[in-house]
Design a protein that fits this description.
The chain is an alpha+beta fold and 244 residues long. It is 34% helix and 29% strand. The chain has seven helices and eleven strands. Helix 1 runs antiparallel to helix 2. Bound molecules: calcium ion. Calcium ion binds next to helix 5.
Length: 244
């Protein structure tokens, strides 16, 4: 499988700094949304992205165990930093990504997630969320107590139930996704999904064939809708191996 990536990130209209980070590599891609305020969130997301980079640059092809290991390494790095820098105590980050993995004779994407950044798949003209948010509002939504629209405006919307930087390494959710030529995977921070509806995200991805232009347009849409948070997106396009 040949994967072509486009990516974009923006500080938004309200925040002083961009605590999001992204990684676009050979066979691994990821978005991290740092928390902890000021420089701390930027450090946490950068440490997570660094662990993902090492996974991508390892000699072995990634598999699920290596992916979980990379998230655990990120967790340990964030905790180590917190211990050495008292003012950064409480720093943490989300981490959502995808890695090309061998599955028998096929190559698939292993989507991995901790926190409330998201992975979506666009197939047959339809956008569907692959990842499950680790957040208070997702727990309320899954119980039927609030709707998805209410979740986006809920006072607890920023409270995550799992993150990278927890005293005990978080459970990592993984999904094996087949991406056929013409289909897309979107990785994004909540600076996109907090501003732009899934329906509008899907329409933008359908309207813009070039992955870089699509990533740029999604960030522009989040800024136009208010840009109240840092916003980061990666668009991954699957092509046939013999396409180029
Ligand atoms: Ca955010």
């Amino acid at each position: 499988m040949i994967v072509t990536a486009g990516s974009a990130t923006h500080v938004g209209h309200v925040r002083d700094g961009n605590e999001d980070a992204l990684y676009c590599g050979r066979r691994v891609w990821a978005v991290a949304d740092g928390m902890g305020g000021h420089a701390a969130g930027e450090v946490a997301s950068a440490l997570a992205v660094e662990a993902v980079r090492r996974l991508d640059e390892a000699a072995e092809d990634p598999d699920e165990a290596a992916i979980v290991g990379a998230v655990e390494a990120a967790n340990a790095a964030v905790l180590r930093y917190a211990r050495r820098h008292a003012r950064a105590w409480g720093l943490a980050t989300t981490l959502v990504g995808a890695a090309l993995v061998a599955d028998g004779d096929e190559e698939r994407l292993c989507v991995f997630n901790v926190g409330d950044s998201r992975a979506y798949r666009l197939a047959h003209g339809h956008l569907a969320q692959v990842s499950v948010d680790h957040s208070e509002v997702e727990e309320l939504r899954s119980l039927g107590l609030i709707t998805a629209a209410e979740a986006r405006r809920h006072p607890l919307r920023n409270v995550v139930t799992r993150c990278v930087g927890m005293p005990q390494a978080p459970d990592v959710d993984t999904w094996l996704v087949s991406l056929r030529p013409g289909e897309r995977l979107l990785l994004c921070s909540d600076g996109l999904t907090g501003e732009v509806s899934d329906a509008a995200i899907g329409l933008t991805l359908l309207a813009e064939p070039d992955p870089q232009a699509a990533a740029d347009r999604l960030v522009e849409a989040a800024l136009a809708a208010g840009g109240s948070d840092n916003v980061t997106v990666i668009v991954l396009d699957a092509g046939a191996s013999d396409e180029r």
